[in-house]
Amino acid sequence: MSENIAANPKLTRRLKRALLVTLLTVLVLATIAAAVTSYLQASEIQDETLLSVAQLVETNQMSTPTDYDLFDDDDDLEDSAVSVWELGKKSRRGPDVNKKMKTGFHTLHEGDDFWRVYVTQKNRDNRQFIVAQKLGVSAELALNSAKNTALPLLLLFLLVPLLVTFIVRHSFRPLNTLTKKIGNSDSLQLDVADKKEIPVEVLPFVSAIDSLLEKNEAFNQQQRRFIADAAHELRTPITALSLEIDNVQSAKTELSRQQRQSALAQSVIRLQRLVNQLLDLARAQSGFANSISTISLNDLVKNQIGELYPLVDKKQIEIQVLRNEPVLVNDNNNQIQHLVRNALSNAIKFTPDSGKIDINVYLENDRAVFCVTDNGPGVLPEQLEKLHQPFYRPDGQSSGKGAGLGLAICNEIATQLNGHLELSTISPTGFRFRYSQKTATA
Q1: Could you give the dihedral angle defined by the CA atoms of residues 324, 325, 330 and 331, in that order, rounded to the nearest 10 degrees?
Q2: CA dist 423 to 223, 347, 391, Å?
Q3: pLDDT tens digits along 253-267
Q4: How many other CB atoms are found less than 10 A from the CB of residue 101?
Q5: 33, 192, 255, 365 - which has most CB atoms within 10 Å?
Q6: pTM to 2 decimals?
Q7: What residue spans in the chain does CATH classification 3.30.565.10 cover?
Q8: For the structural domain made of 287-438, what CATH number should be given?
């Protein structure tokens, strides 16, 4: 079990990985954006510097330049010095400039260096000057700016994994607490004292689990009640069998022994019927779709009437099939056969001698309907809902007429086949069994 759990995807690990990748990607993009912005700003600063010097030269606010470098007295700034010389003359350190070059900014390549050049307008003496600086200055400024920007970001690169781990652990702490609380609980119920402590994102899942546990507990109670009732119902015929075996063994005459053996055989038949009904109920409750087939409901009803006719004839019951329309339905493991047989057996059992049973099979709004009506004693209206419960027998029917499983089996079959079972009392006396199910295509 632990190996299977270890192989499952870990949400916290996936979340941390996603956050780390996202944040680190953002930091890298931010660093690149800062470097590009710094480079563009450095280029603008360089152009503004050249333009400022050019304006000073054009307006004679500085001595007339011949050929010199601004800031040339600073060795550290030698490569960043701004060179100024007259157009048409050779510069001692600047690039060669074509005398016909137009006024404005230009980028020149000479040797291994690129230069940013500004050509001034002609002054009063009809002279033009060149203001130049190496283009690498802007790159150096951009690099320095990017370094200054990247240093704090590098610290964030180290802090981000720690921050992500802390945030994820802190966020999942309520869920971990809830997991430990559920894991350490011995109850099958999800006992959460304060649901306000549960995160909103997890609350629907917790509520669904809580609902599932409640349904499971209700099902377990139903099964425990069924087992207790089954044990009680089985104990009576088994006890009777033991007594009748003793009676057979203690018989003093052959006639007495035969009579007691006949009673013993009847008890065995009743016990066998009870066990078969218990198996039918368990099969109906299992809900396994092992053998889905399409059957003719009207043919099935006709066959079941034929098998049960000896019981009908014995009680001289008048049985009439008023409607027998051809309808097809889907069946699962012959469950409908059990439903039809239980309905007919129940009607025959409670119909008095020389009574009457009406049977109808017909189509109604794309649903197949099977209806059995008898003129037996019926059931009180307040007892109808309890007929679905196993081992329930209405007042006056609690002895000698079954274990109270037939209608419970029919109800389970109806549930598994998505059908609808309706039980009703006919006034003044009588009982109606009505089952409907969606029809199937051939």
Answers
A1: 10
A2: 24, 12, 17
A3: 888 778 777 877 777
A4: 14
A5: 192
A6: 0.48
A7: 287-438
A8: 3.30.565.10
